[in-house]
From TrEMBL:
<dbReference type="GO" id="GO:0008168">
    <property type="term" value="F:methyltransferase activity"/>
</dbReference>
<protein>
    <submittedName>
        <fullName>MT21C methyltransferase</fullName>
    </submittedName>
</protein>
<dbReference type="InterPro" id="IPR029063">
    <property type="entry name" value="SAM-dependent_MTases_sf"/>
</dbReference>
<keyword id="KW-0808">Transferase</keyword>
<dbReference type="Pfam" id="PF10294">
    <property type="entry name" value="Methyltransf_16"/>
</dbReference>
<dbReference type="InterPro" id="IPR019410">
    <property type="entry name" value="Methyltransf_16"/>
</dbReference>
<dbReference type="GO" id="GO:0032259">
    <property type="term" value="P:methylation"/>
</dbReference>
<keyword id="KW-0949">S-adenosyl-L-methionine</keyword>
<keyword id="KW-0489">Methyltransferase</keyword>
């Protein structure tokens, strides 16, 4: 049940015309900062997808509702790192995670764009969904206020481990924010599964881009 109707938004074209002549760099502006993202055409995770733009924009516009100042934030499937960079600019302690082959580009983007931010230095770590979670992120030590995920659901075989990873990190008090482009039946099936495990609300829809942004919290019995 979704009591509150989602807000209908458009992804704003707030990336600036390219100053660099290289095809692999995109320039964005969020929270008054220019962010330069290096993309890689070799990996899925190294391109900025619309869900990342939607969530970055939403976090920027809803700082009172979702205040990230001094909060512990985990991004899973961080890709190019755009969302983690925005969360860092908003004052969060950020841990950006992804598959090993994406980490080099991810680390590069994060350090390049947060080097001058003195608040909290973000951390980049390997996280393969569903693997070694208790060893690498023991629940007793790692508690996150927010878990962020964008465009993590598409045609891939890792949807079960993805859901297990979300369940693992969403402890009582944790807010999961998930933005995704909805195109395939698998996307909607995942949404249903998420709804059977968590309390879910659709916060925003971006119809031009087929993106939905959801908030999920653990059911406390």
């Amino acid at each position: 049940s979704f009591p509150d109707a989602p807000v209908i938004l458009t992804i704003l074209q707030n990336w600036v015309p390219r100053v660099s002549h290289y095809f692999d760099k995109e320039h964005y502006t969020y929270v008054g900062h220019q962010i330069v993202i290096q993309e890689s055409i070799e990996y899925f995770g190294a391109v900025v997808w619309p869900g990342a733009l939607a969530l970055s924009q939403y976090l920027e516009s809803n700082q009172e509702q979702f205040n990230l100042q001094d909060k512990k934030v985990l991004e899973i499937g961080a890709g190019t790192g755009l969302v983690s960079i925005v969360a860092c600019i908003l004052g969060a302690y950020v841990t950006a995670t992804d598959l090993p082959e994406v980490l080099e580009n991810l680390s590069y983007n994060i350090s390049k764009n947060t080097g001058k931010i003195n608040k909290h230095k973000p951390e980049v770590r390997k996280l393969v969904w569903g693997e070694g979670l208790a060893e690498d992120f023991p629940a007793a030590t790692y508690h996150y206020d927010f878990v962020l995920a964008t465009d993590v659901v598409y045609h891939h075989a890792a949807l079960e481990p993805l859901l297990a990873t979300m369940e693992y990190f969403c402890q009582p008090g944790t807010v999961l924010l998930w933005a995704n482009r909805f195109r395939f039946s698998t996307d909607y099936e995942f949404l249903e599964k998420l709804g059977s495990v968590f309390n879910t609300t659709i916060l925003a829809e971006f119809p031009d881009s087929n993106v939905k942004l959801l908030k999920a919290t653990v059911r406390e019995n």
